Amino acid sequence: MRDSDLGNMDAGQLCRLFASGEASPREAAQAALERIERFNPAVNAYVLVDHEGALAAADAATRRWREGNPLSPIDGIPVSLKDLTESKGLPARKGSLTLSAEPCEQDAPPARRLREAGAVILGKTNTPEFGWKAITDNPVFGATANPWDMRLTSGGSSGGAAVAAALNMGVLHQGGDSGGSIRIPADFCGVFGFKPTFGWVPEWPRSKAASLSHLGPLTRTVADAARMLNIIGRYDYRDPYALRGQPQDWGEALGKEIRGLRIAFVPTLGDARVDPEVAKCVRQAANRLASLGADVEEVEPEIDASLQVFNTLWFTASLAVYREHSEEQRSLLDPGLVDDARRAERLTALDMFYALEKRARLTEQLEHFNQRYHLVMTPSVAVPPFALHHDVPPGSGMRDWAEWSPFSYPFNLSQQPAASVPCGFTPQGLPVGFQLAAGKHDDIRILRVSHAYMEAFPMAYPAEPG
Q: Is 181 a known active-site residue?
């Protein structure tokens, strides 16, 4: 089995080869590391690669498979962690000049679960400083480029993970999403990204935007996302927001038909303005879902405007980060993060109270809407990928990243599950995705429909950075 073959395989294919003895975790790790060596200098998806640790873990997994005693169905599978996630023995710079390169002394829940399952941790993927925005660049490691066009952004804040998934530099990639940070880069890079119900994938230490933050997978296939969730989507007492009740098997409904499911197609949520090429591609995807048997109805739900609500919470989280730093350290922070923090200084306790009240009303409206429809379908992002080193599309007149991603943050406010599903390309060859969202704890239905779509309409992936 050639490394180039192994490097293009998903977790299911690899494990079948591990079980038969036709390939080993060591060979799979070497294939992933070879792809990182080839591709990463161009796109900057990984900020740290643990060659020695990965090969040692792969050798241990190889022995277990040969003895017929794998630790889990992903034993030996190459994985990555976002650089906001702590992993014992590896640094977590979080894109900040204010943090040291000293190795962490503990595993965050995803790292711990993956390690216990025998997964091979390849390294850490790039993120903006403290994950504060929806593109991926920072003063420590620089920018992560889009694999389809390296002049463009990969999105963020899990941009490194999305690019690694698109180029299969590893198979399973962990991201985080407080306002779209899994779904936005998944859309821009043409991969599957899933934000589970809040609290079902534990996080610790918690981010400053704790009540908005969800952890989840970025992968090439829905089946691989389910495999990863079967490991990381388990209760951990260290997360004060962690919930029980996760599916025993996150992939239990994959392969079931979607006939009869009621899907609300919402082309422009609220007053969102969508690029015409994006809108066209997403509408085609809605028609395709209907052709698979889903009952797709175009609707426009009446929900309260939520950008001000989100910004109140988001800017306050930035202020909390800012105030934890000394005056000397503050001069090293990303100026955009500092700007957000300074805007929060004008907010009052009453502003926060009203924001939380409006958040509760929005959640009630969305959950009520899901009593009539099983799923809500929207564009994932309102615009195609734009120029690297810009927080908003050049010439757009926008100030904040949330303005060009109006479909993402409402589902962080509501804490509902949501996914970005790749569905085609613009005439310029840039990926487009649609979003599927559901009521709380209805994650399985999103995975079921996403899988059905991607099986019927497979996505192409870049052979190398473009």
A: yes
